[in-house]
Write a structure and sequence with these properties.
The complex is a heterodimer of chains A (about 110) and B (about 110).
Chain A (H helix, E strand, L loop, with lengths): L2 E5 L2 E4 L5 E8 L5 E7 L5 E9 L2 E4 L5 E7 L2 E6 L8 E8 L8 E2 L3 E5 L1
Parallel strand pairs in A: 2-11
Antiparallel strand pairs in A: 1-3, 3-8, 4-5, 4-9, 5-6, 7-8, 9-10, 9-11
Chain B lengths: L2 E3 L4 E5 L4 E3 L2 E3 L5 E8 L6 E7 L7 E2 L2 E6 L4 E6 L8 E9 L6 E2 L3 E6 L1
The chains are: A mainly beta (about 110), B mainly beta (about 110).
């Protein structure tokens, strides 16, 4: 069966510090991968998605970036965090094409101080 | 681009009663899928139910059913026999067939009263 991992679960970082959040998927190959951010009590904002290694689509201009160095690995990064980057970050995968549902990881709660 | 609207920020329902959570969408593409997710306070996103734009019948999954009205572009979630464990945020989402992203509504917080 497929599983999706995210780490760390929680993170507290100072403004201006770098960020690296990692997401890996097991039990499937060539998945579509997604990064979402959720502000407290709000909906999900799509940040990036990837349909293959090295292929990244950015939805919102910001100081975040994403990379997909391996088929089942998706990394969210920042060189300098802002206060507004605080939130709950969710990684998700789905099989490519069609009407398939997304499966989500457990999320990372990021607080920027 | 597709758009998802959930107009109910919060809903209350008595335990064992049914509740309907509203969702409307906007797209000019004829091929799409509609999804509902549940997010408990733990933060995990749990997939509940799916409806394809060409499906003739409304989707059902246990106590969940989707009231799909294509002409009105609505995809309301009906939860029957509410349980205390149903208290959570509920999100409606849409994905176009020829697109790889998925868009979410703002969510509805459901509280089940004992």
């Amino acid at each position: 069966s497929q599983t999706i991992h995210q780490w760390p679960a929680t993170l507290v970082q100072p403004v201006g510090s770098p960020l690296s959040l990692e997401c890996t998927v097991e039990g499937t190959s060539n998945p579509n991968l997604y990064w979402y951010r959720q502000a407290a009590g709000r909906g999900l904002q799509l940040l990036f998605y990837s349909v293959g290694i090295g292929q990244i689509s950015s939805e919102v201009p910001q100081n975040l970036s994403a990379s997909r160095p391996q088929d089942r690995q998706f990394i969210l990064s920042s060189k300098k965090l802002l206060l507004s980057d605080s939130g709950f970050y969710l990684c998700a995968w789905r099989t490519s094409g069609g009407y398939n549902e997304q499966f989500f990881g457990p999320g990372t709660r990021l607080t920027v101080l | 681009a597709q758009k998802i609207t959930q107009t109910q920020p919060g809903m209350f329902v008595q335990e064992k009663e049914a509740v309907t959570l509203d969702c409307t969408y906007d797209t000019s593409d004829p091929s799409y899928g509609l999804f509902w997710y549940k997010q408990p306070s733990s933060g995990e996103m749990i997939f509940l139910i799916y409806q394809g734009s060409y499906d003739q019948q409304n989707a059902t999954e246990g106590r969940y059913s989707l009231n799909f009205q294509k002409a009105r572009k609505s995809a309301n979630l009906v939860i029957s026999a509410s349980q205390l464990g149903d208290s959570a945020m509920y999100f409606c989402a849409m994905s176009l067939y020829n697109n790889n992203d998925m868009r979410f509504g703002a969510g509805t917080r459901l509280t089940v009263k004992p």
